[in-house]
Design goal:
single chain; 384 residues; alpha/beta; Rossmann fold; 2 domains; 6-stranded parallel beta sheet; 15 helices
């Protein structure tokens, strides 16, 4: 804790020194040649950032788009033609600042509040920077040091309760990009697609004929966990009523929750467990071939949305208006007796844990299968 505080003090002191020498990062620029978008959050948030890359390229097709984020999200964005380079931030502040400085970036924006992220952009000497200012709610990520540093850049209002991908697009307005299109964009390699095709062949699954349903029974944020027994009931229902080809996905950290689900399955229900079997490239290709994706509000669900795959999002304590997929073939399941959602995109840290768990635990398997039946009926009408 002391080291963390000392680090913040050192970085803030350096930024203040730079301010007295160079001033604010609010300089007027012409058509930007190099643009950096910093998304330091997780997979689902990064998928919801992809409309920004497309908006920049639509307005400045000759510009170079750089993205700053974690290593997993680099794999997520591989093959995206809207991105020229991905820069991995490994918590190495000065080394990353040096890399950014060498790129001579004209404009940068930070998608979510965070002192280190904003300090990194400012210390790198980027002349024009925008960063979010949270409205209509509280975000613990807006620390005193962040708010101080935000005075040196352009503030863009981010309204909690509004659709986050559209709020992100406001960050581009300082470079005269005014966009409303929030369609997500992901891509995979031909090699990854071939490996998935081989997988289907080995498992006697036909994407053009079978009803392929992917279930992700775990979540990165454990407060969202729904329970393996309930996911098992949904899988049993899918197999019994729709003869679905059910595929279970997850990462290494999800093994416990996947095994829990498998233990509760009816002995006659057949599933294919591919947890840890695929790299991110192959996972994208796999999800793109599905007819339905079911999970709590977690990263792979947004991959499904990006490829137009129908989804059922067991939102639990999340605000269903802020980020979950929304469309004719995207359904959310939540309890009706909640006064307000406990978790938000800009506040997944300070909440009533007991109430958050209640908002998850009171969702029954029957509530999910009811939405499933409605969604299947809608899909039948679509293809009738």
């Amino acid at each position: 804790m002391k080291n963390a505080k000392l680090r913040i003090i050192v970085i803030l002191s350096l930024c203040l020194f730079r301010f007295f020498i160079k001033g604010k990062a609010t300089k007027k620029i012409g058509a930007p040649r190099k643009i950096l978008i910093a998304q330091m959050a997780k997979m689902g948030d990064m998928v919801c950032t992809t409309p920004m890359f497309r908006a920049v390229k639509a307005n400045y097709p000759k510009s170079k788009v750089y993205v700053l984020g974690n290593g997993i999200n680099k794999e997520l964005l591989d093959w995206n033609p809207d991105i020229d380079r991905y820069i991995i931030f490994k918590n190495n502040f000065f080394e990353t600042a040096r890399i950014l400085r060498e790129k001579n970036i004209d404009f940068a924006c930070l998608t979510s509040p965070g002192f280190v992220g904003l300090a990194l952009l400012y210390f790198a000497g980027i002349p024009l920077i925008s960063a979010p200012e949270i409205k209509n709610g509280f975000s613990p990520y807006e620390t005193k040091s962040y708010k101080l540093l935000r005075k040196f850049v352009i503030s863009a209002p981010h309204y909690m309760g509004n659709y986050a991908p559209r709020e992100y697009l406001k960050l581009l307005e300082p470079i005269h990009v005014f966009a409303e299109d929030t369609k997500k964009h992901l891509f995979f390699s031909s090699a990854g697609e071939q490996r998935v095709s081989d997988f289907f062949l080995r498992n006697n699954a036909r994407p053009d004929f079978d009803f392929i349903v992917i279930i992700a029974p775990s979540a990165g944020n454990k407060i969202k966990l729904w329970g393996g027994n309930k996911f098992a009931k949904v899988a049993d229902y899918l197999y019994r009523h729709y003869n679905a080809k059910i595929i279970i996905v997850g990462a290494k950290n999800d093994t416990e929750h996947i095994n829990e689900m498998l233990c509760f399955l009816d002995k006659n229900t057949k599933v294919i467990n591919v947890a840890e079997a695929f790299a991110i490239d192959e996972l994208k290709a796999l999800i793109s071939k599905a007819n339905l994706f079911i999970s709590v509000d977690t990263g792979p669900l947004y991959i499904a949305e990006a490829f137009g795959v129908p989804t059922i999002d067991i939102v639990g304590p999340m605000d269903e208006c802020e980020q979950p997929p929304a469309g004719e073939f995207n359904r959310v399941v939540k309890v009706k007796n909640r006064k307000k959602p406990e978790l938000h995109i800009m506040n997944a840290r300070v909440y009533d844990a007991k109430e958050a768990r209640r908002q998850v635990e009171e969702i029954t398997a029957g509530m999910v299968t009811d939405e499933l039946n409605k969604l299947v009926d809608a899909l039948k009408k679509r293809y009738a």
